[in-house]
């Protein structure tokens, strides 16, 4: 049963007209296609590659396929709104080939006439549209390997930040040891490979506990205090 289902999907893939191997058209080499301020359309059955930052558009409607170029860092798509409709697809990375560069969609509310039902500033899909976004696999948290004192800008982690896919420019939070607000810190440097250190900016706004910490507890009758260690933060 499961096998038949897979076969069905495979056949469906083979007969889908434009999702096949045909290489996408580079949007940057057809710059007259969508002028600044226009209502730009990726027509059904067309497959475009977003390989530049297009001029600021009033709106972008995707009825074919728009594939974000995974190989280029820091591209920006700026439009009043982005609508994917019909059998359209917006693809920013796939599960097997995630997008590891920075991609920005900037919705400006700049178009003259809002969409009749969806409004004036949105990224939306309707009908059988697909919006696919897969970013780099990321370790989202780890532990501090030692205390960080207020004012320090280097901290030692329990794990290698590179193995977590952390990068310079990423923003992290450090959970508070005492009551207080968790504030964002930007990673401005990673220590040498294998060092498990990161440099943050601004410097630590408070003291944070990290690593192993002995806890002494003397109970009433017991002659020897109980000792234990706690990995904090
Ligand atoms: C988004 O686009 C608007 C209009 O061009 C611009 O003013 C704004 O700075 C852009 N925002 C970002 C985060 O790039």
SSE order and pairing:
Blueprint: H1 2-15, E1 25-26, E2 39-42, E3 47-50, E4 57-62, E5 65-68, E6 75-84, E7 89-92, E8 103-107, E9 123-125, E10 130-133, E11 154-156, E12 171-173, E13 184-190, E14 197-201, E15 211-217, E16 226-232
Parallel strand pairs: 1-3, 2-4, 3-5, 4-6, 5-7, 6-8, 6-9, 7-10
Antiparallel strand pairs: 11-14, 12-13, 13-14, 15-16
Structure description:
The strands form four sheets. The protein has a five-stranded parallel sheet, with no helix packed on it. Strands 2, 4, 6, 8 and 9 form a five-stranded parallel sheet that branches. Strands 11-14-13-12 form a four-stranded antiparallel sheet, with no helix packed on it. It has one helix spanning 2-15; strands at residues 25-26, 39-42, 47-50, 57-62, 65-68, 75-84, 89-92, 103-107, 123-125, 130-133, 154-156, 171-173, 184-190, 197-201, 211-217, 226-232. It folds into two domains: 14-133, no CATH class; 139-233. The chain contains one helix and 16 strands. It is elongated and about 70 Å long. With 233 residues, it is mainly β. A hairpin with an 8-residue loop joins strand 15 and strand 16. The chain is 6% helix and 33% strand. It binds 2-acetamido-2-deoxy-beta-D-glucopyranose. The site of 2-acetamido-2-deoxy-beta-D-glucopyranose (NAG) has 4 residues, from loops.
